[in-house]
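Lab notebook: predicted structure, single chain.

Context: the supervisor wants predicted structures on file for every construct in the current expression panel, including those that have not yet been purified. This is the next one on the list. No modifications to the sequence; it matches the entry in the shared construct table.
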Amino acid sequence: MDQRISGSTAIEITESVRDLRDRGMLGPGDTLPSVRALAEQLSVNRNTVVAAYRQLVQAGIAQTRGRGGTRIVDHYAAPQEGFATDNVLRDVGTGNPDPALIPDPSVALQAVVGRPVLYGEPVIDDALAHWAHGWMAADLPDRELRLTVTSGAVDAVERLLAQALTRDDAVALEDPCWLAGIQTARLGGYRTVAVPIDEQGMTVQGLRAALQAGVRAVVCTPRAQNPTGASLSAERAAALRDELSSHPYVLVIEDDHFSMLSQHPFHSILPPDHRRFALVRSVSKFLGPDMCLAVVASDPTTAERLALRLSPGTTWVSHLLQRLTHALLADADVRTAITAAGKHYAERNAAFVRRLAHDVPGLDAASGDGLNVWVTLPVTARAVGEQLMRRGWLARLGDDFVLSDAASRHLRLTVHDLDDTAAAQLADDLAAAVVTAGAKVG
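Prediction complete. Output recorded below exactly as produced.
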């Protein structure tokens, strides 16, 4: 295999490896030569090979495993949210909202069907634009805002990054990070700079280091951070604003995905005079994942560039979907139900954390905010996950969310839909799994 890789520049080496993979001469699990070996073989500087391997990793073609070397991965094997297919285990790693708490759209749908929308008409429905401007401006006062509607938060973040970054540009992502964020950066070829998360959200030291590393964009989850559930405190948000104050042209994306369901206030990290920003709020957590719609409030320049990113394809999100979203969110009863759903998620998650604290002493778990519980383990997540599978449970391993190659010691559990009996059984089985996994690795 060594003799088949060619090239004298990082781009040529990268394209050679990609070509070998596309022709089936390299497959998932195949190990690439060491940096030293390939540099000697091709008579190039080691830094050239390092740059090539970095591009392969960022493109999702290869993965670096420390002493295990750099290996070809399955490009389509990126972890996704949702239920595992063809699975007989009880799935507690879905990240899904409770379908029973999603408002029924059938009555509102009948009322929003109207005349057809034709090419050239405004891309944002007037009623939704008016309502959404108040929703967004309340948390971003005294700013000139322009609204854009996209097909969900992932679509918004992907297009926002694409209009600001080029391949190999650096972007600051939270670590651990939401699954789609990792995949978006990888497919875009961006260089990720990890910003650690603690119980108050994005850390000041981490953001400072990322800015010093030259990131051109920062993606921050102000509340209900996925997977940890952390939300920014007022003090932390103020400290982050101070760090950003001398970087007004770094694009700051605030992904407030939980918004109406959150039990915490919104604290923006945007300094008063920041020039490039976007606040993204999707409706999927409270109106359902199939309602693929997000509202983006941004500065005029970012909004203009975002509109250009939308123009090559369909230039708008379906007006039927926009009208339905507005009809639901403008309904006082629906908003009351959404508030009740947020409280339900918080109460069920907190109850499970209390149960763990009582039944499994020494196991650290945090409900935070959001749909999940983040559990810190004394041993590797993979070892515990395997033991849970033997007991009938499928958990989401923390390894899926980390930006590094280090083995995670966390589980993300979606437990809000478990009744008391099932929650007690999961706690018991988790305790047993930790003990068994500890005995094996100890």
